[in-house]
Amino acid sequence: MSNINLILKAREHGKNFIYETPILFNKKFNEIVGKNIFIKPECLQVTGSFKFRGAWCAISHLKKENKISNGVVAYSSGNHAQAVASASQTHGISSVIVMPKDAPKQKISNTLGYNAEVVFYDRYNEIREQIGENIAIEKNLTLIKPYDEHLVIAGQGTCGLEIIEQSKKLGLEKAEVLVCCGGGGLSAGISLALEKYAPYYKLRTCEPEFYDDTARSLKSGKREINETTYPSICDAILTPTPGEITFPILKRNAREGLVASETEVLQAMKLLYEHFKIVSEPGGAVAAAAAIFSKNKLKEKDIIVVVSGGNVDSEVFSKAISEN
Amino acid sequence: MSNINLILKAREHGKNFIYETPILFNKKFNEIVGKNIFIKPECLQVTGSFKFRGAWCAISHLKKENKISNGVVAYSSGNHAQAVASASQTHGISSVIVMPKDAPKQKISNTLGYNAEVVFYDRYNEIREQIGENIAIEKNLTLIKPYDEHLVIAGQGTCGLEIIEQSKKLGLEKAEVLVCCGGGGLSAGISLALEKYAPYYKLRTCEPEFYDDTARSLKSGKREINETTYPSICDAILTPTPGEITFPILKRNAREGLVASETEVLQAMKLLYEHFKIVSEPGGAVAAAAAIFSKNKLKEKDIIVVVSGGNVDSEVFSKAISEN
User: Fold this and answer.
1) Segment B126-135, tens digit of pLDDT
2) CB within 8 Å: B314 and A273
């Protein structure tokens, strides 16, 4: 079950392996936005995204309990891929990763660099869950799901524990915590930590335009599905519907969801580059974009923004920082 | 006098204002380099470089002692400029900054953004020290020198205190600490902290090709002068000779200096982007370049690399991450 005890255990497992990422803030950036913005740069996390937290937690937990006999398998657009591959490598476990063939080049090459076997699929005509489950059965591998998995959610929750400790040190009493949201693993994990230790901090999910399934689901109260196949640069967080496990947690803990357009995301990447000297990928900058461009929807003056990843091809990053 | 007590006092003054930047490391990057590399990303520091440490320390110290009657003046290629402007603004003090007219656009616009008055000069035909001193007398302003100033060196030394605490937590017993070096303020400050608390950590200055005055001075034992006017992308650390105050400290504490070429610096910026998701400027990536490309000159297996700044125009950064 996803709960605070599992998160505390995840933190124990992650000690010395998962980074405690800092919280960054910048007077000038606050003037531009008109809010006090506190950036949690998970792009600095091992493998360049928060995903390492969940992957590490799941694999170290399962290994300890002897539940991995013959390696692991995962499906992912690229960040969970790198995280599972790297965590497996450190644990001396082999990994097979199912990735879309149009995933960013950097994500593919990094995943291969962690000695994973990569199986490509066509994201418009094939179902990755099916491919992953088939491989798990065929090769007797343990499947590490990207978000709808208690151990993975617990790992992402360690980011929430850090947010609470760090922002309380900074004197924040009330705050909104803006989190980039695909399947909802990071949002759900963080929200569980807030629910327990910082009930006055409120979580807001942030999604790319046309992929606002969580925002619509939070509004309707049931899991809505994106019908679009509209392409998006936010490859990291394009999921069809909120998770079965993650959604009830978010329904209990999250305020109204926020949405950002591609132009807003590119502008946010540029501002994060200019003011914080961090590299964010489009899907990782959605919460920052929402903080900047939907600030009239924010209810608090102190806003914590999770920049969830930074694995971006140089052409896309150069475009973001040069234009606008 | 530059000594450890002044550094400890600087830390007190900087509390809640100067960031404790993290230490980042990455298994894959270590495989590429063939050493254990620990990155201290001072590009994440307030105003995008370590310079904020020294500027904050000097201004808060002088203000406390009522030694600033009518504002401050500084000369700088851009990082000390932003740091002095920002620290002054927070202290409610006005600032005049003397900058080369060909400084990076981002550095100029940021300095103006902190409400500084900027005075431009021609770096090939005018002497900035003279302009700064004249303005100080004319307008009755307190001059904050960029490196040859005890309070500034003490502020930069706070970076050394963090390096020692953080790397000891990581279990490092012996290490070489590679620091980008212009006038030597950061190197001297860090070396004073190492001398006191970590005598087995050895400092190495890192300079751009053709601007290796410190390396040559360490070899000859006296302050050598660069005769070149060869242009360099490493604008942040182009100084004619080591400081009068900084050099004796470095002579006592530093091992043989390292040098990196422009091509190596650009490649280092790309690797820092890919593996650590941080934005470095050319002058800020010189130590990383030396760690990667002069590794046969390194004597230890654990190498701490200070990435000293990240204020870089987007055209230069795009070039660095796209090419090579």
Assistant:
1) 999 999 999 9
2) yes
What is residue A170's predicted lDDT score, i.e. its pLDDT? 93
Report the CATH architecture of B4-49+150-322. Answer: 3-Layer(aba) Sandwich (3.40)
**Distance (Å, rounded) from C-alpha A312 to C-alpha A270?**
13
- Cβ neighbours, 10 Å, residue B17: 15
- Cα nearest neighbour of B322 on chain A: A314
Q: Are A181 and A147 in contact (CB under 8 A)?
A: no
- Across A48-86, b (16+ Cβ under 10 Å) vs e yields bbbbbbbbbbbbbbbbeeeebeebbbbbbbbbbbbbbbb
* Confidence label for B230 from pLDDT (cuts 50, 70 and 90): confident
Question: Looking at the predicted structure, is the pLDDT value of residue B211 above 60?
Answer: yes
Do B52-143 and B4-49+150-322 fall under one CATH topology?
A: yes
Element (H, E) at A117: strand A117-121
Shortest Cα–Cα distance, A251 to chain B (Å): 33
Angstrom distance (rounded) from CA B112 to CA B121:
16
Q: Where are the domains of chain B?
A: 4-49+150-322, 52-143
Nearest CA in chain A to B15: A170
Burial category of B12 from C-beta neighbours within 10 Å (exposed 0-12, middle 13-18, buried 19 and up): exposed
Residue B220's nearest CA partner among B239, B240, B202, B242 is B242
Contact at CB, B277 and A43, closer than 8 angstroms: yes
What ranges in A170-245 are assigned the alpha helix state H?
185-197, 213-220
d(CA B320, CA B264): 10
> Is the complex ipTM higher than 0.90?
yes
The correct answer on CATH 3.30.70.580 for the domain covering A52-143 is no
Cα A73 from Cα B273, distance rounded (Å) = 28
Q: Is B21 helix (H, G, I), strand (E, B) or coil?
A: coil
CB-based contacts of A149, cutoff 8 Å, min separation 6: A54, A58, A185, A245
Phi and psi (nearest 5°) for B313? -65, 150
DSSP 8-state symbol, B200: T
Tokens of B7: 């550094």
